Amino acid sequence: MKSEGPRNCQDESFSALMIVSSVNNLHRSLVRCPKQRAMVQSKTWVLARHFEGFPEDSNFELKLEQQPEPKDGEVLLEALFLSVDPYMRPFSRLRMKEGGVMIGTQVAKVIQSNNSAFPIGCHVVGRCGWRTHTVSDGTGLTRLLSDWPQEVPMSLALGAIGMPGLTALYGLEEVLGLQAGDTLLVNAAAGAVGSTVGQIAKIKGCRVVGSTGSDAKVAFLKELGFDEAFNYKTVSSLEEALKSASPDGYHCFFENVGGPFSSVAIPQMKEFGRIALCGGISTYNDTTPQTGPYPHLTMIFKQLKMEGFLVGRWEHKNQEALRRLMAWKREGKLQCYEHVTEGFENMPAAFMGMLQGENIGKAIVKV
Fold first, then answer.
1. Nearest-CA neighbor of 296 among 321, 262, 330?
2. CB atoms within 10 A of CB 48
3. How many C-beta neighbours within 10 Å does residue 62 have?
4. Tell me: the pLDDT tens digits for 47-78?
5. What residues have CB less than 8 Å from 51, skipping those under 6 apart?
6. N-term to C-term CA, the chain
7. What is the crossing angle of helices 192-203 and 215-224, to 10°?
8. Which distant-in-sequence residues (6+ apart) come within 8 Å of 258 by Cβ?
9. Do residues 265 and 302 touch, judged by C-beta distance below 8 A?
10. How many angstroms separate the CA atoms of 6 and 334, rounded?
11. Residue 339: left (phi > 0), alpha (psi -120 to 50), or beta?
C-alpha cells in the first residue's frame, strides 16, 4: 500500500484560516445586507373619473401597485376591514383627482415594521384609502385601544367604536348640548351614525324619533329602543308623520339627509331648538343644486341654532370618547350592527349599495 507521506501542517493551517476568514466575511455580509424580501403587490381601487350623478361601475378601476420595502420609521400594513361611508361621495370631488386611489379608512395589521410605535402584529386604524397593502411612516395611524376586548370585533373601530360613533357623540354633546328630557329627531336613523345617535340619546334620558327608508329599518329602530320611528317613503305626509311622532315639536334635530326633509322638519322645531348639520346625503348625487324653500323666517322667529360640524374638530378628545363608547358597548347599552360585504373586489358595489340605503348599521368590506 502506498504511503500518503507526511502532512504539510503549515499548508493545512493556512487553509483552515482561509475557511474561517471566508465564513466570517460571509456572516458580516449577511448582517450588512439581509435577505431582500419580495416586494408586496397591493390591489387598489382608483377613481377613474369623477362622479356625475349617482356613481357607476365605470367610475372605478382596479389596479395593482408594488409596495416598496419599508424604510426606517415605516411600516407595511395589510388591510383587514375597509369602510364605505357617505362622505366619500362629496369629498371625492373636493379632495381627489381622477386616477387617485379612493379615499377611505381601514383597520389594518402591521406585517413589517421599522417603527417602534407600531410593532409587527399590532392593529391600527388609518386613512389608507381603498388599498389591500400600504407602506406608511405612521402619520395618521392610530393603534386600537390597548385593552380592546377579544370578544369585540375589530371592525367596530370603523363603526360605533370609531369615526361614526365619535360623530354621533360629538354632534349630540358638543353641537346640540343634548339634555335629559329633550326630544330628538334624527334622520337616516338606521345608518352607522343615526343608529348610534339614537342609542346615545336614550342613554342620556331623551325621547328619540327616527326617520328611515324601509319597514325593516323601522323595526330595527324599535329594537334599539327608539320611542317613535317611521318610513318616510311610505307615509302620506312627512309633516303629519313628524307632528304625530312629537306633537309638541323637537328640541334637537340631528340632520343627516338635507333637501326636502329639512324644509319640512325645521318648522317642527321648538323655540330655541338646536340643529346639528352632520350630512346631506339626499343632495350628494344631484347634478343640479336643489333650491328652496328657505328657512330664514322660521329660524328667526323660533330663534333656532343651526351648526355644521366635522368630527375632526374634537380629535383631542378621541381616546376618552372611544373608551366611553366601548364601555357602553360592553354594558349592553350600545348595540353595534354591521352590514358586511366580503371581498376587496366588491368595494364599489358596497359603496354604491350604502348610498342606496341597502345597509342597516355600519357598511364595511371584509378583505
1. 262
2. 14
3. 14
4. 999 999 999 999 999 999 999 999 999 999 99
5. 59, 89, 92, 93, 285
6. 74
7. 30
8. 279, 280, 281, 282, 283
9. no
10. 89
11. beta
Please state whether beta strands 269-277 and 250-255 pair in parallel, antiparallel, or not at all (unpaired).
parallel
The position carrying cell 411612516 is: 137
Residue 293 DSSP one-character state: -
Can you list the alpha helix ranges (DSSP code H) found in the chain?
Answer: 9-32, 88-95, 163-170, 192-203, 215-224, 238-245, 260-265, 296-301, 318-330, 347-355
CA 311 to chain centre: 12
How far out from the chain centre does Cα 69 lie?
A: 27
pTM: 0.88
Taking the CB of residue 180, how many other CB atoms lie within 10 A of it?
Answer: 8
Express each pLDDT in 269-327 by its tens digit: 999 999 999 999 999 999 998 988 899 999 999 999 999 999 999 999 999 999 999 99
* Alpha-carbon torsion angle 346, 348, 350, 351, nearest 10: 160
Residues in the chain: 367
Residue type, 352: M
Amino acid at 326: M
Model confidence pLDDT, tens digit, residues 296-310: 999 999 999 999 999
The single residue listed with the C-alpha cell 507521506 is 5
State which H helix or E strand residue 107 sits in.
Answer: strand 106-113
